[in-house]
Amino acid sequence: MQTPSDRHAYPSHWEADVVLRDGGTARIRPITAEDAERLVSFYEQVSDESKYYRFFAPYPRLSAKDVHRFTHHDQVDRVGLAATVGGEFIATVRFDRIDSRGMSASAPADEAEVAFLVQDAHQGRGVASTLLEHIAAVARERGIRRFVAEVLPANTKMIKVFTDAGYQQQRSFEDGVVRLEFDLEPTDRSLAVMRAREQRAEARSVQRLLTPKSVAVIGVGRTPGGVGRSVLRNLREAGFTGRLYAVNSAFDERDKAAGGKGAEVDGVPAYRSVRDIDEPVELAVVTVPAERVPQAVAECGERGVLGLVVISAGYAESGPEGRERQRELVRQARSYGTRILGPNAFGVINTSPDVRLNASLAPHPPERGRIGLFTQSGAIGIALLSGLHRRGAGLSTFVSAGNRADVSGNDVLQYWYEDPDTDVALMYLESIGNPRKFTRLARRAATAKPLVVVQGARHSGIAPTGHAVQATRLPHATVSALLRQAGVVRVDTVTEMVDAGLLLAGQPLPSGPRVAILGNSESLGLLTYDACVADGLRPMPPRDLTTGATPADFRAALADALSDDSCDAVIVTAIPWVGEDGTTASPETLAGELHAAAAGCPAKPVAVVHVELGGLAEALAAATRTRPDAAAPAPAPGSEGHSRPAERLPTATATAPAPATPPSDPAQPYRIPAYPAAERAVRALAEAVKYAQWRREAKEPGKVHEYEDIDESGAARRIGELLAEQGDPRGATLGQDDARELLGRYGIDVRDALPAPDPDAAVAAARALGYPVALKTTAPHLRHRADLGGVRLDLADEEQLRRAYAELAEAFGKPAELRPVVQAMAPRGVDTVVRAVIDPAAGAVLSFGLAGAASELLGDTGHRLIPVTERDAGSLVRSIRTAPLLFGWRGSAPVDTPALEELLQRVSRLVDDHPEVVAVSLEPVVVAQRGLSVLGASVRLAPPPARSDLGPRALPGY
Fold it and tell me: Phi and psi of 339, rounded to 5°?
């Protein structure tokens, strides 16, 4: 057990599990006095060259004094961290606070000397760069703002660790030593470097699970049946290209195959333990009962297994005891540097011909395709695999995470971002463990490939049992809006997810919302037209080919529509038909003609709505080997191939996903998606249109506006003073005057509202402000409830004011209860509400809507993540359903939306610049034809919540 340090309690919050460059894990923790033996053992395994680089001289062993110095830290001026695997040190880092002369010092000195030592066997795994992130965070916490490092010129690896970190640096050379000095304040570059390393490490950890060269199934029974035997059979029948092993502690000499060979199960070598396998094992699938899993994990860890898929149940989904068993499982696996998928997982599938992995309970793996699928539910995973198979869609990879105690959707998203075999990602999520990180990753992924998400349990407000999630106060509608802002194709059902995924995987992105409709049924065409209008598309009048249309007629009509510059997509509707001679055309014939028409025309998305045409969907799903866009070479970046170039889906490369130049692969299968109902086809197309529009806008995301009249430093000082005055660690809501002052430093003017405790005070306030005035109550139960009659407007003189005062007192009670105020009348306009809040899980969110009970009842509020750009502000204003009221609805005068957008950006800047501002509410904000008036404001301050996305990389704690 670790002991307290010399001067400070043991800082357990510095402990962290991290993913290294090769996908393995390590634990970072403070070094304590109890680590003396570990330190000596670690040092003995370091090469003489590495020791020389560390101490600038031969240093074969540590003296007792050295060991004491390197294991006794005050955790303030002297700090040491170690990276451990299996409880043993693999690397260390320490800093010593120094003064301007380079001598040992204490605070307020803000500079420290830092030094690393990494075991040779673990060099190249990114251990030093990860330790640098963590020791820098510790230093900032202890008031250190600058690191100094002295490195021998030949130690190029360590020099690269410092120079690649992204901090502002100074470099000098003196007395044969390179001296590096760098500020520890995070920069845009250091954050970008950290996130790029995070992406590579987490992607590699998932790659270990999906591309193993050898798999051991632990828990394979002697007799047919059982989970282990099923998984082994599925691996064999899928044609896994690597080595397979069956493991069961019950195997003995009697299980040897005929002829004296080693034991086998279904032709697969069988062993009592993973430790008995001579060859390396990269992936273990654990199917034994929960009480035997720890032994299996220990044996895998000792054998150096790279990844674990735990199908075994009996963990957090079974109650408190199982939840603790799950925590211990994760801690145990991470102690060996191993990541876990599960427990209670359904398994993983990789259809690549180089792997052909089916380490799952699915007896029939999907065909190879370009769709990646992630689910947290095994049951939903089964349904999705079956549904995709029925509709002829193939998958690149499938991951079912179960309780997702370790590997999560975020990790899989990191892998798909660079995976060249995945064009579209589908995710069924029952919870989002880190919404802030998921939104960031989703935004980046969506610039390269579509991401379709459906979230279960969204109305219950309860995360599924077994899922460790960060609490969020945001309603589901808000989270959904934020995901859409990040480019996620957000749908409500798994059926819609499959519908959208098929269209996005098989068709190019539309250039706009204009839709041509053609088919052999006038009624079905009109239904499709109505569905397009309802989903915000711009349909052209349906073209009726009549019920006598032949497949050749369909081909000609589709070719005409695709060649028409006035449409961006085509929906084909088809019902069974019979020729004049009584003959019928086969669905296969129609499918062939539609494929032929699409192949010879400019690339625009095509979808088919069919009614009672058995076999048509299957025929359309049959891949042709030539995409429509393969007929002509792709235009060079920045050029225009035709007047309205279609944006094609990209295939990200493993080195640099480039959303601006999606390649066109002639060998990639081309499939036309078919739908049994017009509404489903239209909804899928509408999602593709919105995603394509987001992609175009994401290329120029806009800028966060800088306002010269903002007093950022003055606001920071005032916030510090107000927090000190409040003295409540939970924070407090500012008084009216303090809120007005703080908002004013960001150019947000709030109209005076003078208290009116009696009629005479009300009259005096009105004289000070000037007539006409408004009289309103500010009691919590009446505030912002004009519909209850607590507001009197346009009071032109003293007589009207006194009469209104008496009416309010008679209707609602004594003035002391009503808290009436007098305010000068603002120019008439549209009443709106602007709010900002910092959610502990999702981050800072800006919200906008119209004021009034109707908007609140309908939930008509738009949301954007902070900071917002000028483009975000404009889209936020237009995102609500009642937005037409701002732009001259029914002949009314349009209001000053540019002033409203500026207000939104100023509120965003305030909250982004000062995380202590945890909530802002401006209500109402009256937007007139010229300008706007903020009539009420509320600001809440509190100590800033922790920003996990700005700290060093770390896995969720267990």
Answer: -100, 155
